[in-house]
Task: inverse folding
């Protein structure tokens, strides 16, 4: 019966997606609906950079130290392949991130709305913060790295970044701009610099 419920819920979600796409296509101005769908999807997808970065540097420490077996299996089956792909293409992903940041900050990509550019800049700034903290942690002496204070700091930072990512994704999906304390001001400054 449980498998049947899971199967039914996947059918409902597929029908819901099809129904929503049909509504967009059959609306008087379908291009507006697809434009909104595109700009929200791009804005959400870019948060894969900080998510992967945090899992690359701290995933083993956070996920494998938890007593939950399902969480460990999820990490090994789903997140480790993502972090390995990131590790193999480290310089390429860094180049893509920097190119996106420069293009969005200068407003070179005309097909991207201000909404998308703002969210892309926020995600990349969050990724830069993760890129700064991750290597510092890796080069700490083992005694400090394995200490209780370091583990508390790592778990808190990991949870904080994940909450910021999920908070941003939730607001973006509703068409609103996320307000993350330091990142919001930095993204606005980059956008204003491009306009002046």
Result:
């Amino acid at each position: 019966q449980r498998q049947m419920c899971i199967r039914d819920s996947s059918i409902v979600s597929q029908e819901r997606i099809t129904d929503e796409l049909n509504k967009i296509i059959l609306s008087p101005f379908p291009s507006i609906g697809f434009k909104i769908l595109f700009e929200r999807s791009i804005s959400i997808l870019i948060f894969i950079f900080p998510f992967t970065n945090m899992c690359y540097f701290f995933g083993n420490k956070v996920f494998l130290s938890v007593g939950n077996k399902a969480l460990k299996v999820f990490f090994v089956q789903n997140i480790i392949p993502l972090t390995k792909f990131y590790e193999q293409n480290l310089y390429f992903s860094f180049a893509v991130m920097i190119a996106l940041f420069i293009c969005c900050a200068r407003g070179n990509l005309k097909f991207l709305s201000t909404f998308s550019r703002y969210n892309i800049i926020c995600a990349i700034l969050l990724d830069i913060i993760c890129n700064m903290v991750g290597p510092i942690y890796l080069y700490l002496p083992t005694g400090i790295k394995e200490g209780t204070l370091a583990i508390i700091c790592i778990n808190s930072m990991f949870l904080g970044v994940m909450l910021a990512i999920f908070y941003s994704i939730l607001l973006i999906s509703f068409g609103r701009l996320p307000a993350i304390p330091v990142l919001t001001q930095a993204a606005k400054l980059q956008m204003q610099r491009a306009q002046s």
User: Anything to note?
Assistant: Residues 148-173 form the longest helix (26 residues). Confidence is low (pLDDT under 50) at residues 1-11.
